[in-house]
Design brief:
Largest interface: A-B, 29 and 26 residues
Helix content of chain A: 55-70%
Shape of chain A: elongated
Strand content of chain A: 5-15%
Largest sheet of chain B: 9 strands, mixed
Distance between the termini of chain A: 28 Å
Strand content of chain B: 35-45%
Radius of gyration of chain B: 15 Å
Number of strands of chain A: 6
Number of strands of chain B: 9
Helix content of chain B: 10-25%
Number of helices of chain B: 3
Structural class of chain A: alpha/beta
Structural class of chain B: alpha+beta
Strand order of the largest sheet of chain A: 3-2-1-4-5
Number of helices of chain A: 5
Largest sheet of chain A: 5 strands, mixed
Order of helices and strands of chain A: HEHEHEHEEEH
Distance between the termini of chain B: 32 Å
Oligomer: heterodimer
């Protein structure tokens, strides 16, 4: 049986760990709140941006643009957005497994893999998979400024025909308890989901300044950037939510371990007292 | 005919702001563009510059933007800005003295400016210079 001193040291160690996990849980909760707010704000902006894209498509049904037309996918660019850090349960593992499966199942013969986030960069480097581009330091904080060159580069690739499709894999955040990895196509834009003008809706004579083609050339990189932004923000919220759950479990488990150790401590102390009393009685009888 | 229209300003990661306006002036791709109630539907690109909103109360609001888009449909103007700097933000920035904007570069001062060659920082500096100039008027 362990000595009383050993058990007390163990309790102290577990209590320190519990303090850390509890602090991490609180931090994740606060960050999750901020991330959820960021998701709502991003969604509000993107819905208006989508309305503009829909507006062009609706008013000019015969308008052709590389971003709107489907083409045979010979080369696909798949962007994987993952976690920044660990200690978030199965969040990173689940995403990496999903990403590997999605990459293997993708029908395109040529695949360019781009990665955002420290954890997936390390994962794909360890796997020895060639990465077309990696941005390990992009996170929820640096998104606004740092996404400009990324979206411009991806847009250039698509417009020049070096890739025929751009998709993103990230963890979709539905609620604090519901989140799962998804693959979503960014370009070409899925026009099937766009609502055509309803029969009762009045036709407008739109002024496009400059021409629709030039306008679309400027609109699309922003659209792409904001869709990436939303994916990063959602992934970040999902990561914080996973960390919050993991740290809650860790804090609860630490509490259970401390209770067990306290029980052991009391048992050991009681056994020691009983033994000492027995020794005293045995001594007095002798 | 209605004499006012709604102007909604949106920028990434921030709350939407709406005003009931009499007139709107924005930096279009071919120069300053004025919008009034009942305007024909339009979709236009915004270049870096100053957005001026004349509210229904005759209060004029000024903003600097580094670019974006403006959609006017059904008497509602939606301005999607890449970034938006309010007068209050500009004043707070200048008072704190922490973040001094670089003076506009030659490219930014050039009348025949090419915004595609300007970085985001240059566009911001250019727009802020225009906002300062508009405030002095």
């Amino acid at each position: 049986m362990a000595s009383l001193r050993d058990i007390r040291e163990k309790i102290r160690g577990v209590a320190t760990t519990q303090q850390i996990t509890s602090a991490m849980k609180m931090m994740s909760t606060a960050r999750l709140g901020r991330a959820i707010e960021a998701i709502n704000l991003t969604k509000a902006y993107i819905s208006r941006l989508e309305k503009m894209v829909q507006c062009v498509k609706r008013e000019l049904p015969n308008f052709e643009h590389p971003c709107l037309s489907e083409r045979e996918v010979k080369n696909a660019c798949i962007i994987i957005i993952g976690g920044e850090r660990g200690l978030c349960g199965g969040f990173n593992h689940e995403l990496h497994r999903f990403a590997m499966q999605a990459i293997n199942d993708h029908p395109a013969p040529g695949k360019k893999i781009a990665v955002i986030g420290r954890k997936p960069v390390r994962f794909f480097e360890q796997k020895g998979m060639p990465l077309f581009a990696s941005w390990p330091d992009i996170g929820i904080k640096s998104v606004e400024t740092d996404l400009f060159p990324i979206s411009e580069r991806l847009f250039e690739l698509f417009i020049r025909g070096q890739v025929d499709e751009i998709s993103v894999i990230y963890t979709s955040f539905i609620s604090a308890t519901r989140k799962h990895p998804v693959i979503s196509r960014l370009l070409p834009v899925d026009t099937g989901s766009m609502s055509p003008r309803s029969p009762g809706q009045a036709a407008h004579t739109f002024d496009f300044l400059p021409s629709p083609a030039l306008l679309f050339d400027q609109l699309m990189p922003r659209y792409l950037r904001n869709l990436l932004h939303r994916a990063i923000v959602e992934s970040s919220a999902a990561e914080q939510s996973a960390r919050m759950t993991a740290m809650t479990s860790a804090t609860d488990r630490a509490e259970e371990i401390i209770d067990d150790l306290k029980l052991d401590l009391n048992r050991s102390r009681q056994a020691l007292i009983t033994r000492e009393i027995a020794e005293v009685i045995a001594g007095s009888q002798a | 005919m209605k004499k006012s229209f709604t102007v909604t300003l949106a920028r990434p990661g921030r709350h939407l702001v709406s005003f009931e306006a009499k007139a709107l002036q924005l930096p279009g791709d071919r120069g300053s563009l004025g919008v009034m109630a009942g305007r024909q539907p339009m979709l236009t690109v915004m270049e870096p510059g100053v957005i001026s909103i004349l509210e229904i109360t005759d209060h004029r609001r000024l903003f600097a933007t580094t670019g974006g888009f403006c959609e006017m449909i059904d008497n509602e103007a939606t301005l999607l800005c890449d970034s938006l700097i309010t007068v209050e933000e500009l004043e707070a920035e200048e008072m704190s003295g922490g973040k001094q904007e670089k003076p506009a570069t030659t490219a930014a001062r050039n009348y025949r400016r090419d915004f595609t060659k300007m970085s985001e920082a240059e566009k911001r500096a250019y727009a802020l210079n225009l906002l300062r100039h508009a405030l002095r008027k």
